[in-house]
Design goal:
Blueprint lengths: L11 H10 L1 H7 L6 E2 L3 H11 L3 E2 L1 H14 L1
Parallel strand pairs: 1-2
């Protein structure tokens, strides 16, 4: 989506078509417990809007993994 590109009215349809080429189908076909990582805020919104799945910032994923490791 490249920042706000996909939310601009004139680019919205194109942005979704691009997402449907590989990204959205791969996410839909993944197991529900598969963690989806996306660093950008707009990327996470685009994934949510296009697939209904929630993407998580990689730092949050790392933090949660480290916390689980420390807490046992």
């Amino acid at each position: 989506m490249a920042g706000a590109f996909g939310y601009e009215k004139e680019h919205f349809e194109l942005s979704n078509k691009i997402g449907e080429i590989i990204l959205f189908p791969a996410i839909r076909e993944s197991e529900p417990e598969t963690i989806i990582a996306a660093p950008g805020t707009s990327c996470r919104h685009h994934i949510k809007d296009g697939t209904g799945r929630t993407a998580i910032h990689p730092v949050v994923i790392l933090y949660n993994a480290l916390r689980r490791n420390v807490e046992g």
